[in-house]
Design a protein that fits this description.
With about 400 residues, the chain is mainly alpha-helical. The chain is built from 16 helices and no strands.
């Protein structure tokens, strides 16, 4: 069935259409080359993701510049909009080879537009709101055009792409309208644009999409690493140019937290989710799993890591001072959001409830009011200890099952 589908998608190179017949027949001048079964994440995809690194850094900077509830909301809205555009390219490059044909040039164009979006993030709700919306529109239009090119001989993919074009146009149009407003109205329009755009993924028939499951899962795993890298950057930017005993202790605790977040995802969650996506029936079942588990549920993971990065940045900047309510909520609430996303992720894929991670998430949320007046090192130390204890408990109690997941060939 897979071979028949790829055969239906392939057309003659001289027509400037999609080609999937191998490297010798590649490079139609205005065409796109299908990815086929290639699961390797390409260097151009990694290059593209570097722009997302700057976007994450800018979202953290936006929230740090305005450490209020409104500032957090603005940062998360911008991150949500940029995430939805990034995950769209993850779907795209699971259909076409980004390094062949005209796709490479359009990817560079999208990178340039994405970079402008990232640069304007600090003023996305202010003086550069219109520039952000216009650059974001270019990112999304390039994405749709490449999907249209890749779907010339696949009616199902073409229908899905046209549906995505509608939700994209609505989202970009509302952001353009929001650039002419301010205050609560502007924030409400941003929230509406993001909600309607993301809702398109639910309304559109998932059977039309195409993806290479191993590649798709790895791409999202790599973006989690990129987000964790932002937490490391936050330690450096928060510390500034001074290094004393308090900074050293905070930096060590920050690494423990970042390592704990890494462990909780990559030790078991990542390999299990990858195998389940590969094992899912091709078509609607696999595409729904990819949409729910990766496009949707990875966003609160990345957002949670971004909030933790904000909390760590503020901790390093004010080691001996109280962290205050909003940064404390970012630090502990971000970790709780990350854990709750894991709970939902497991519930979606394995249909069981991870009570340990759910319980720790609730404890972290409950302790925010109690720790916001303590020295900044206290909530960071508590988070580092809590994550370490959770990992130690899960590793000890579920050690045998963990080994089977991590080393299936040895079982």
């Amino acid at each position: 069935m897979e071979q028949d589908r790829r055969g239906a998608l392939a057309t003659r190179c001289e027509d400037g259409r999609v080609s999937s017949t191998g490297p010798d027949s590649r490079a139609p001048r205005f065409g796109a080359v299908l990815r086929g079964d290639e699961e390797r994440v390409t260097p151009l995809e990694l290059f593209f993701d570097l722009v997302f690194v700057l976007a994450l850094t800018q979202c953290t900077a936006l929230m740090a510049a305005t450490p209020t509830w409104a500032g957090l909301a603005q940062g998360l809205l911008v991150l949500g909009v940029l995430w939805w555009s990034w995950t769209g390219y993850a779907w795209l490059t699971s259909v076409v080879d980004p390094e062949e044909g005209s796709v490479r040039l359009v990817m560079f164009l999208a990178m340039a537009a994405f970079l402008i979006c990232a640069l304007t993030v600090p003023e996305a709700f202010g003086s550069e709101a219109l520039l952000f919306a216009l650059a974001y529109g270019v990112v999304r239009v390039a994405h749709i055009l490449l999907f249209l090119l890749a779907s010339r001989d696949d009616p199902g993919l073409r229908r899905a792409t046209l549906g995505l074009a509608v939700s994209t146009a609505i989202g970009v149009g509302i952001l353009l309208a929001a650039s002419a407003t301010d205050g609560l109205l502007q924030g409400g329009l941003w929230a509406l644009a993001l909600a309607l755009d993301m809702a398109g993924g639910i309304v559109i028939d998932p059977a039309g999409w195409r993806l290479v499951p191993g590649h798709f899962a790895e791409r999202h795993g790599l973006i989690v690493i990129i987000a964790l890298g932002e937490s490391i950057v936050a330690i450096g930017t928060g510390a500034g140019h001074r290094v004393d005993a308090g900074i050293v202790l905070a930096a060590v605790l920050g690494i423990v937290v970042a390592a704990g977040l890494w462990w909780l995802y990559f030790d078991v969650v990542a390999p299990v989710s990858t195998r389940r996506l590969i094992a899912a029936a091709e078509g609607s079942e696999r595409n729904r799993m990819a949409r729910d588990s990766f496009s949707y549920l990875h966003f609160p993971m990345v957002a949670g890591i971004g909030l933790v990065a904000l909390g760590m940045k503020e901790t390093l900047a004010h080691v001996s001072d109280p962290l205050r309510l909003v940064p404390t909520a970012a630090l502990l609430g971000g970790a709780a959001l990350y854990l709750l996303a894991h709970v939902a992720f497991r519930l979606r894929n394995v249909h069981t409830l991870n009570r340990r991670r759910l319980g720790l998430a609730l404890v972290l949320l409950a302790l925010i009011p109690a720790l916001d007046t303590r020295p900044a090192l206290v909530p960071l130390a508590f988070l580092a200890a809590a994550l370490s204890l959770l990992i130690a408990y899960e590793t000890r109690v579920y050690g045998e099952a963990r080994q089977r997941v991590r080393h299936p060939d040895a079982a």
